[in-house]
Amino acid sequence: xxxxxxxxxxxxxxxxxxxxxxxxxxxxxxxxxxxxxxxxxxxxxxxxxxxxxxxxxxxxxxxxxxxxxxxxxxxxxxxxxxxxxxxxxxxxxxxxxxxxxxxxxxxxxxxxxxxxxxxxxxxxxxxxxxxxxxxxxxxxxxxxxxxxxxxxxxxxxxxxxxxxxxxxxxxxxxxxxxxxxxxxxxxxxxxxxxxxxxxxxxxxxxxxxxxxxxxxxxxxxxxxxxxxxxxxxxxxxxxxxxxxxxxxxxxxxxxxxxxxxxxxxxxxxxxxxxxxxxxxxxxxxxxxxxxxxxxxxxxxxxxxxxxxxxxxxxxxxxxxxxxxxxxxxxxxxxxxxxxxxxxxxxxxxxxxx
Length: 353
Prior knowledge:
Elements (H helix, E strand, L loop, with lengths): L9 H10 L22 H7 L4 H7 L6 E3 L12 H6 L2 E4 L6 H7 L5 E4 L20 E5 L11 H7 L6 E5 L24 E4 L4 H8 L8 E4 L5 H11 L5 E4 L9 H8 L5 E5 L15 E5 L7 H12 L6 E5 L3 H4 L2 H12 L3 E5 L2
Parallel strand pairs: 1-2, 2-3, 3-4, 4-5, 5-6, 6-7, 7-8, 8-9, 9-10, 10-11, 11-12
């Protein structure tokens, strides 16, 4: 690297280092992102700290921002407590620490990710406030609620400032009744984004009863049974402003039409390109539509799914096309289909996800 890098102010380099991993602990919604946002950035920071003495001093704390829970973490509380204060995202891989202990050792944690089937231990008598926790990605296992404490419930109760929640179940357990007490009603006053992966009707029914006054964004990753979809729309659809539907949902049902009907305040609809069949859905409120095109392998009939829906939204102001293949944008039919939208003042944006 050119030696001139040492002449730049430390504040500039710290800003650059910050952006290396910002997505991995962000609670903000971005269209068409995988549910697992964990990224292995330690290798990048390991290289950064070797550049020079200054960079080593500036970037050392970043090495501990995104960690996976090893057994040694518990020693931080006594040996190097500053390590725990640096952590922003933690992935649970073992049950060596309970969430109460994690929140005590890592008071600034922003994202907690639990996907492994390890049993979690809790102590109701130990307070575990997680005021800094903004995002929770949680895979629910049938054995979680065996005993007196439901770990998911305990974490949610300890996180009043939670803004982003992803819930899913292993596909092998989604058809099995589990021991969770789904009759309890949760109040999450700050939750803005709810993402549901694989879920059975018990889980969906539970979520539909929750109090979510700030909820504006809903992401549905997997097909829900008819009853489940109706419950979500009926209880939360009236205040949703952004909805994202997974790529395989729309081949089997009328998810878009039902979404538009149940969400009168919908501002932004994000979906994967599919073959639009039947009557074109209509929405007076939608002003932005985003379409993910990368996996499209169809003819002009397939493309018409973009434009038929656009025609059903007379107040549409922005059409965003993600991952548009070059062969599609170079096709003469593409420009012909876009012309009516452009003529009425609709802005076209071609973006990368």
